[in-house]
Amino acid sequence: xxxxxxxxxxxxxxxxxxxxxxxxxxxxxxxxxxxxxxxxxxxxxxxxxxxxxxxxxxxxxxxxxxxxxxxxxxxxxxxxxxxxxxxxxxxxxxxxxxxxxxxxxxxxxxxxxxxxxxxxxxxxxxxxxxxxxxxxxxxxxxxxxxxxxxxxxxxxxxxxxxxxxxxxxxxxxxxxxxxxxxxxxxxxxxxxxxxxxxxxxxxxxxxxxxxxxxxxxxxxxxxxxxxxxxxxxxxxxxxxxxxxxxxxxxxxxxxxxxxxxxxxxxxxxxxxxxxxxxxxxxxxxxxxxxxxxxxxxxxxxxxxxxxxxxxxxxxxxxxxxxxxxxxxxxxxxxxxxxxxxxxxxxxxxxxxxxxxxxxxxxxxxxxxxxxxxxxxxxxxxxxxxxxxxxxxxxxxxxxxxxxxxxxxxxxxxxxxxxxxxxxxxxxxxxxxxxxxxxxxxxxxxxx
Amino acid sequence: xxxxxxxxxxxxxxxxxxxxxxxxxxxxxxxxxxxxxxxxxxxxxxxxxxxxxxxxxxxxxxxxxxxxxxxxxxxxxxxxxxxxxxxxxxxxxxxxxxxxxxxxxxxxxxxxxxxxxxxxxxxxxxxxxxxxxxxxxxxxxxxxxxxxxxxxxxxxxxxxxxxxxxxxxxxxxxxxxxxxxxxxxxxxxxxxxxxxxxxxxxxxxxxxxxxxxxxxxxxxxxxxxxxxxxxxxxxxxxxxxxxxxxxxxxxxxxxxxxx
Lengths: 447, 259
Fold this sequence. Notes:
The complex is a heterodimer of chains A (447) and B (259).
Chain A: H1 2-7, E1 15-16, E2 26-38, H2 40-43, H3 50-58, E3 68-80, E4 84-88, H4 95-103, E5 110-115, E6 119-122, H5 135-145, H6 150-164, H7 179-191, E7 197-201, H8 209-224, E8 228-232, H9 236-242, E9 245-250, E10 253-258, H10 260-286, E11 305-306, E12 311-319, E13 328-329, E14 335-343, E15 351-358, E16 363-368, E17 382-389, E18 397-406, E19 412-424
Parallel strand pairs in A: 1-5, 4-8, 4-9, 6-7, 7-8, 13-19
Antiparallel strand pairs in A: 2-3, 2-5, 9-10, 11-19, 12-14, 14-17, 15-16, 15-18, 18-19
Chain B: H1 2-10, H2 12-26, H3 35-55, H4 64-86, H5 88-91, H6 93-98, H7 105-131, H8 143-167, H9 170-185, H10 201-205, H11 207-221, H12 227-258
C-alpha cells in the first residue's frame, strides 16, 4: 500500500468523459500529465507476494533506490475538435502510454486529462472477444463494453457485419476466424460505436491490403465528420498524409510539435544521427570502424578476410562529398570509398575491386579495375585509392562494402568481406534496390 | 463507493451478457450441459451421506440427506463465488489492459453466475422435501431476504479479494485453503445443536456458519434466526461491501499496470 501511494502522489487526476458544452471546441485537454511506472513492476513478475511484503515488515529494510521509469513527463496539449494528430517517436518513447492514458486504461500520476465525447481506442482490435462465441454474440458483448446499448447494436449490426465482410461466418465461433477476420470484426465494431475521439495505435499495420484501404477510407470519412483522430504509428508517410499536426515524443517528453512536414523531417534527421552513431559503435565493436587500420587487428578478422597478402588493404573509409566520414546516406547523396593499401611484394598482376551488398546478400553493385580496364600505374609502397560515386542511387536499406585486391584470375591477395557497413535512408519507399535519377512528366495529347 | 454501485447499474447489460456468457460457457461442449449444475451437489450429497450417515453412523438428525443438502447448497454457492471471484480480475487482465473496462463488473459477474447456479439447484431440495413428505414451513418466505444478504456479503468479499489478488497472487491459493477449513467449521455435515455449548460462540461469530445455520432454520426447522444474528450478518454484509469498495477503489488505478 505504501509503495502504491508513493507512485500516485500529486494531484489525483480527473477524467471527465461527459460532454461539456462550454468546451466543445476541444476534444482533448491534457494538462501537465505525468505517468511513471515502478521499475520492479517490469523486472519482477509485476506483483508482490504476501510473503515478500510480510517479510518486508520484519526484516530490516534495505531501501533500494526507488527505480521508476517516467513514461510521460509533464505533457500539456490541447487538441481541437476534428483535428488529426500524429504521435511519433521511437519505441518506448511513451506513445502507447499516452494513448492508454487518454483512453482511461491508465490513470495519470499528475495532471488532468479531459476528453469530450466517446473515445474509441483501436489499441488492440477485438481485445474483448471470446473465442468460443460466435461473431454475433461477440459483437453484442463487445458493443456493450464499448458503451452501446442493445438497441444501438441492433441498429448497427448489419452495417458492422457488412463492413467487416463477414456475413457468411458471423454465426461461427470466432476461434474459427483467421486473424484477419478477427481484426476486421474488431475494427468494424470499434469504428461503428460513433466515437468522438479515435485513438489508433499501429493497428493499420496488420490486415490485408484491401481491408487496410477500406479502413483508411473509413477513417477519412470520420475525419470529414469532424471526429478527432490520434494516430500512433511508425509509418511516417501516413502521418504526413493524414495529420494536421505531429507530436514527437522522446522519453516521455514532447521533443517537437507542429506542422507534419517539418516535425517529421526533424525526426528523420534525429533518427539518422542516432543510427550513424549506432553503426559506428557496431563497427568499433567489430573491430573495423569507418576508418580502420586492418593490419592492427588482422587476426580477429580471419573469417571476413582472406588472401595471400602480397598486397594488403590496410584501411577502408566511407566518406561523403565533403570528405567527412559518414554511415547514413540518402539515395541522392554522393559517396566515396577510400582504400589504403600497402605493397609487401612486387607483383605485376593486380586488380582492385569493390562490391556493395545489401544486407540480404543481394549484390547491388560491383566493379573492379579489370572490368573497367583501368590501368594501374606504379603502386609504390603504400597509397590510397578513391572510388568516387557521384550519386548512390540505392533505395532504403542496410548495405556492406567488400574491398579486394586480387589477380586477374581471381586469386586473392587480400579480400575484405563487409569492410564497412552503411545505411541508406529514404523518405520515399521505392520498390527495388536502385533509384536511378529520374523525373515524371505528363504530356496531354488531347484536351 | 456510491459511484461504484452507480457504475454497476450503468453496466447492467454488460453484466447480464457476461453472466449469460459464463453460464453458457461453463457447460459448452459437455453432453449433460446444464444438468451438471444439479449433478454436482447431488454427487457431493451422496458422498457425504454415505460417509457420515453410514460409515461414521452419525444419526443425531432425522432426514440427514435433506439436512445435508440444505446446508450444502448455500455452502457451494459460497465456495464457487469465492474461488471463481477471487481470480476474476486477474483472469480478465487482457480486458483491463487493452480496453477501458469497468473492472468491478467482474466480481459481480462471478457472484451472480454462482447465485444463478444456486437458485437453479434449490428446486431439487424442495423436490426431496416433497418426496419425503417434509412440511414446507412458513419461514421459507424469509428465504429471499437471507439470499440477498448472502449475495451482498459475498459480493463485498469477492470485490475485496479479487482486487487484492492483483497485487498479491497468493490470495487465490489462500482462499481455497481457508475454504476447506471453513467447511468443517460451519454446521453443514453436523447440526449446530451438536456443537458443545462452550464452542457454540465460534458458530455465532463466524458469518459463514451463521449463513448455513440460517438456511437450516428457515427451511427445515421453521424458526426465524434471532434478530441479533440477522443484525450481525447484515453488519458483516455492509462491512464487506464498504471495505471491498474501498479496497477496490484504492487498487483500481494500478490494475492495468500490474496485469
